[in-house]
């Protein structure tokens, strides 16, 4: 606990610097190497890493709390911190040899990812041949390994296998294609692979992560690693958006305390009852999104720590609350933006950047509300739900 408290404190001390660098990250379309190095120095990236590699094996709520704070200072920095940081949790599920390959010489090694199965996978003796292009690999310039999703075709009538493949930087190139209206500082560029060989031990089945029967659990026995991928990774996307909404809220309240509404005969915006109601509603939405996240993480950790099986209904609720948390955060950001007046559209105003960043994060595939909510509804009606989807 003492170690994680030091990490949390270190992250909070860094927030003013991240806030000052937010516009620079956007202009460069890349979070700086100095920022990533500073975050690493706080121990942030070690929060979900196995203890045998110097990690803290922290409660996910601690990790997500840091992500929220970082994203409230800079949306792009919060985004890449979240997605890069969660990879240390997933790597703990891989066979030990894969973990040794990544962390054996340098436990501080970082990984980026792109999970959409857009490449070509061919099973061969001892592993797989991997080729293709994967998009949206956030923070890839700061990583020396990448995790790529791919479909392994089944033989005959056998079902296909959806797996994650781990490749070193020598096996791929990064193409700079990141020209966007939001999350501009994430450097979420394309990964291009040309006929790389990936040994079997550097791959992991999504089916195994859903059933919580991964090879890495033999050595990494902490309860943290018995939580399903589908209950951890989705919040990796929603949490930065909650943070962006929090940052927008803080910026909005600070701005509105001094704003005078010229169109309403010089009335101070802070005294406008309609503005007060909008602020209250935005705060309620942000708090609801965050409280659901922390309650779900607490329940997950309580059950896995006790060695109990996670009920499917809980897993479905986690996904339900995750997509709803994104919706609530977007709703809050929109309300704050609408309440800020015309000056909010100036590029010098932080609210417009939080607004753009949050909406860019909203379109991530994991935030598809109908898909997640439909699964929850199926569970409520007693219909079957595929484990691999949650």
UniProtKB/TrEMBL annotation:
State the Pfam families in the record.
Answer: Acyl-CoA_dh_2, Acyl-CoA_dh_N
Location of the Acyl-CoA dehydrogenase/oxidase N-terminal domain: 18-103
Keywords recorded for this protein, A-Z: Oxidoreductase
The record ties this protein, via CDD domains, to: NcnH (cd01159)
Recorded hits in Gene3D superfamilies, A to Z, give: Acyl-CoA dehydrogenase/oxidase, N-terminal domain, Butyryl-CoA Dehydrogenase, subunit A, domain 2, Butyryl-CoA Dehydrogenase, subunit A, domain 3
Q: Does the keyword Chaperone apply?
A: no
Ranges for domain Acyl-CoA dehydrogenase C-terminal come to 236-368
What family is this protein classified in? Belongs to the HpaH/HsaA monooxygenase family.
Xref: PANTHER family? FLAVIN-DEPENDENT MONOOXYGENASE, OXYGENASE SUBUNIT HSAA, MEDIUM-CHAIN SPECIFIC ACYL-COA DEHYDROGENASE, MITOCHONDRIAL-RELATED
Under what name is this protein listed? Acyl-CoA dehydrogenase
């Amino acid at each position: 606990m003492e170690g994680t408290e030091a990490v949390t404190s270190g992250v909070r001390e860094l927030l003013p610097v991240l806030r000052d660098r937010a516009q620079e990250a956007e202009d460069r379309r890349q979070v700086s190497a100095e920022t990533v190095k500073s975050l690493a120095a706080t121990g942030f990236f070690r929060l979900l890493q196995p203890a045998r590699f110097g990690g803290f094996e922290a409660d996910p709520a601690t990790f997500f709390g840091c992500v929220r704070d970082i994203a409230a200072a800079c949306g792009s920095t919060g985004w890449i911190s979240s997605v890069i940081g969660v990879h240390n949790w997933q790597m703990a599920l891989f066979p030990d040899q894969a973990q040794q390959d990544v962390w054996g010489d340098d436990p501080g090694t970082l990984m980026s990812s792109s999970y959409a199965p857009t490449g070509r996978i061919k099973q061969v003796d001892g592993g797989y041949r991997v080729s293709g292009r994967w998009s949206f690999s956030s923070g890839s310039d700061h990583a020396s390994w990448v995790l790529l999703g791919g479909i392994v075709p089944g033989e005959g009538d056998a079902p296909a296998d959806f797996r994650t493949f781990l490749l070193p930087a020598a096996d791929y190139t990064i193409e700079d294609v990141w020209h966007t209206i939001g999350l501009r500082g994430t450097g979420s560029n394309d990964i291009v692979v040309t006929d790389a060989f990936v040994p079997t031990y550097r791959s992991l089945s999504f089916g195994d992560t859903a059933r919580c029967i991964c090879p890495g659990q033999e050595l990494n026995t902490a309860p943290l690693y018995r939580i399903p991928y589908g209950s951890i990774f989705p919040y990796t996307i929603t949490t930065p958006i909650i943070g962006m909404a929090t940052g927008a809220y803080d910026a909005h309240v600070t701005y509105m305390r001094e704003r005078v509404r010229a169109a309403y005969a010089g009335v101070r915006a802070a005294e406008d009852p309609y503005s007060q109601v909008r602020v209250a509603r935005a705060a309620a939405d942000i708090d609801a999104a965050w409280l659901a996240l922390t309650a779900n993480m607490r329940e997950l950790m309580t059950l896995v720590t006790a060695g109990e099986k996670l009920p499917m209904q809980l897993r479905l609720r986690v996904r339900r609350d995750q997509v709803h948390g994104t919706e609530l955060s977007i709703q809050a950001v929109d309300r704050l933006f609408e309440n800020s007046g015309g000056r909010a559209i100036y590029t010098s105003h932080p609210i417009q950047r939080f607004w753009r960043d949050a909406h860019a994060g909203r379109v991530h595939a994991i935030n598809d509300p109908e898909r997640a909510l439909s699964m929850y509804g199926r569970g409520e009606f007693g219909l079957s739900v595929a484990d691999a989807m949650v």
